[in-house]
Design brief:
This protein is 56% helix and 10% strand. With 101 residues, the protein is mostly helical. It has a two-stranded antiparallel ribbon with strand order 1-2. It has a two-stranded antiparallel sheet with strand order 3-4. The longest helix has 24 residues.
Length: 101
């Protein structure tokens, strides 16, 4: 059984190695790249998963430093602020991306 690729524009199944949809002629490679880019987004930002990972890693490192130095710092408001900034940045990016399509 051969693998099939479904066209996201019209829904028709095409051969796995097809470059264009046999039904509507859509560029399947361009659609795949676009779909992959959207899947790679987090908070609506490209590479958002990496941004979140960097944020969480930084928070863990800062927490460990405060524990080692016995400092009293509340990271809750800082975490909420960063998450809010990520959400707003994702919304702005999403609006500008739709405008230039």
């Amino acid at each position: 059984m051969t693998a099939m690729v479904r066209c996201t524009k019209c829904g028709r199944e095409n051969a796995d190695d097809a470059k264009y949809c046999v039904n509507c002629g859509a560029d399947l490679e361009r659609i795949e790249r676009s779909d992959r880019r959207v899947r790679d987004e987090c908070f609506g930002l490209p590479h958002g998963g990496a941004i979140v990972g960097i944020f969480i890693g930084t928070m863990i490192i800062l927490w460990a430093i405060t524990q080692l130095l016995q400092l009293k710092i509340d990271f809750g408001p800082f975490a909420v602020l960063i998450i809010g900034i990520l959400i707003v940045a994702g919304a702005i990016y999403g609006l500008t991306r739709k405008r230039y399509r």
